[in-house]
Amino acid sequence: MSPHPPRVSPHVPKPPVSHQHFLLQPVPRVGVSPGCPHVSPVSHSYFPHYYFNLCLLLTCPHAPPGCPHMSPSPLLGGYPPGYPHMSPVSHQHFLLQPVPFAGVSLGCPHMSPVSRRHFPHYYYSLRLSLPGTNASARLLMLDTVLLCGGSDDFGAGGAPQGPRDAAAAAAQLAWLRGRLAAARHDRYVLVAGHYPVWSVAEHGPTTCLLRLLRPLLRHHRVTAYLCGHDHNLQFLEEGGVGYVVSGAGNFMEESQSHGGAVPPGSLRFFFGAPTSPGGFAHLRLDAHAATITFLEATGRVLYRVALPPRDL
């Protein structure tokens, strides 16, 4: 649990909310592409209810490191879908399993719901092997709330105003610098956090991350930065880095009020239709590309982009 108590807006709608149920219908179909989905709730999760959730599915080919007893599933062509690697990047850092209520298995079958949650730390690194190669990818999970401070998703002036613990924020930033430097031989490097670096939507770019994170992403040739916070789907590309905003787990917002705050031409895709049942992003890594597919909860493909391997 976070060292700081959550700040929950009084404007948060009461559950149950319908988007999660619609959203999860296509997940088993998407997640069973060869590999195991690593579910990262870089969108929002309000305790005790599953409020904003399920932002990203990341498929990889090998056994979940915490489940060595698992055997391959002939049906899936690999290991069963579901060992979650999750970062506590929601507003209040509660460590939540995002989708068990919809019948999606997210962990080792014998494990309790609590033990299925895999949070090594507030921020951590994962090495992913690429199928059919000896190459690897690196996923760095951040806690941008600890780095930049909390925010009020629905309140006026709710942008992060700085970390409560400056020393802890500095330690996380130093850790990130070291991990990015050590990942120089990885074919893909992904960084994930709750707050966006770039966004055209209601919250817009995060000043703290533009100052602290964006230079590191560019310098270390990071493949993509993955985030939530704004309640829509976006893809932006700037300085050779892809920016995935996937926060459509509950309701959708179509505002592009910060369209002038991002670099000209950087926005490649935006979807925030209020009548939509929600959506998510699927990221598949292989030897040739990091392929990002944005899907609506109906299963409809909205946008797809292939990012090349890093030039090593």
From TrEMBL:
One of its GO terms (molecular function) is hydrolase activity. One of its GO terms (biological process) is bone resorption. Keywords: Hydrolase, Signal. This is Acid phosphatase 5, tartrate resistant.
